[in-house]
User: What shape does this take?
Amino acid sequence: MRIQVEFEAQLRTALGQGVVDLDIAEGSSIVDALRAVVAQGPEAFAARVFSEDGTIRPSLFIVVGESAVSSLDAGAYSLSVDDRVVVMPPIAGG
Assistant: This one.
């Protein structure tokens, strides 16, 4: 199935592009999709997405469609055809 993964801010810079179109298996999770992107990207990008233990960094904000998804739930969240996943690093400012 085809989905789109969009990266914002420093993640976009680390990957070298903002949007990745993926063909992944039916029933794939957000974690599966992010692993597919990481496999194509530079090592520095992988370190910004996944912790050393292989889990998604809890500081990342993930949205699928209009629904926020916790990094803890990303492995259990099944994606659907044409889903758009947006991944954002923490944003601070003042």
Q: What stands out?
A: The CA atoms of residues 26 and 32 lie 11 Å apart. The chain has one domain: 2-88. The chain has a mean pLDDT of 95. The helical segments are 9-15, 30-40, 43-49.
